[in-house]
User: Fold this.
Amino acid sequence: MRILHALACALGMLIAVPARADIVYATQGPFGGFFGLWGPVVSQQQSVGARFVPSANYTLTHLRIWLMNDSQVPGAPLRITLRSDSPSGTGTSVPSSEVISEWNITCTASGWNPVQHTVVPVSPVALRSGVRYWVVAQSPAPGGASPVWCFASVGNAFSATTTGDGVTWQPGGNGAAPTLTVEGTPGLPASSPDINGDGAVNGLDLTALLAAWGTGAPSCDLNADGVVSGLDLTALLAAWD
Assistant:
């Protein structure tokens, strides 16, 4: 098995190529619009959400938003979350309470001078084709000293804000678009070679992979290409304990 492990590692080095990041979704920037620089306040009284729908399967690599500041003093904290859409059957598209991933950042903008802020996932995040996702911005900052999420200079998108309680969502519909760029690598995140989750990659995982050979079983499709094959076997052997 050590020989197989060495061969798998060598093969992986030969076929490895840098993953490219594609634009999954993007609005225009905030500059040059008819209304100038403007946007919704993100404060303890109001959260803001922007919706996007991937046209293919991706693994999220970056989220980018443009922010201004109601204060000349930077440093307001923000919580950025990726959420699912409201449950089907409600008839209203707003962010759900399900948080898929989250990031805590600081607004570095001073006054109404837009600064693009970027968040990078620490662990793989799947973006599935045709699924509605929301990027939500929240802040405990008080009004008058809070971040402002810039609207795009042109174009509309589906957005939502909370009511005065900061919790209840109200849909904004297709209106001014909060600036948002979503980047990802093609394909869903790879699965762990520790298929049975026992903390080791060994014969038990190999048995499970071989039992799923030729199928699309997600737990054994380690490279997420839709089929359990020799490529997944190579990945498993490369991680062998």
